[in-house]
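## retry 2 of 3
previous attempt timed out at serialization; input unchanged, resubmitting
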Amino acid sequence: MGEITRRGLGAFGTGLGLAAALPALAQPGSPQPWPSRAVALVVPFVPGGSADVIGRPLAQHLSAAFGQSFVVDNRGGANGNVGTHLVVRAEPDGQMLLVTTNGPVSTNMLLFRTMPYNPLTDLTPVALLSDLPVIVVARRDAPYASLAEMFAYARANPGKINCGVPATGALGHLAAELLQRRAGIEFTIVPFRGGATAATGLLSGVVEVSIDLVPAYQAHIQAGTVRALGVAATERLEALPGAEPIASQGLPGFEALGWTAILGPPGLPAGIVQKVNEAANRFLDKPEIKAMQSALGSRILGGTPQDLARRMQAEVALWRPVIAAAGITLD
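## retry succeeded, writing output
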């Protein structure tokens, strides 16, 4: 999933009163309750991405809720596999958890020929946090002003539209491949080295169309420098009410969503899973968190560990045929 840079998250409420409401959870064979010391929240990417945006205020909330420090630990590498594997190999004592986007816990297993772990069996789902769609944007001077017009142009001119994506295997790339399959069109896919570079490529005329997560183009759309053709969600976004869902433009049910979640190592005790899940859901119910995510075009999720497990399985099922048909690999 493409990464989102955001600064100035500001201070969030500490909710100190929750600490007294959550009894300590003792571990089998150990006289100490959980958490007995600082907990690492591993984010498997460099600082400043979407997992950080939600992970850092989540760490503040969990610290207040459980009376111990929860500290974000950025461990980037291999599209998130390095940090995720660290959690997979961690002791199942709740002292190391994972806050991640969907790639390392779903689509990476389809993009890498060799993986050091299986996310569907080697991690313990805890809670979904949020999701965020990709958006299809075009240059202001492109010869089409709507998605339907772009489809017609692409069908009449196969391969003529250069479509920029933030990187090979990024969600924007996968969404571009899915859009071609569903709409019966052909792009020339142009991978860039990151979302900012892809945006520059669109604005400078290197590509005519670009597909990436909403925040990559949100400011450009609002400034009128690019045109939003469609958002890969089934309903309009509060942050971009003028961006019509692709699903309502001739491709029913079309979605391409990046999402964030919290997971633990295999064998994480059910009691710890329940405690963290409940605390995460309370965090997501905070008005300031809802407002922050809505401003980014993101949707608050929450729910049970089983909801996250189902989301992971559905993500793999959605992208497996797309990735296989396009022959996309990252190793």
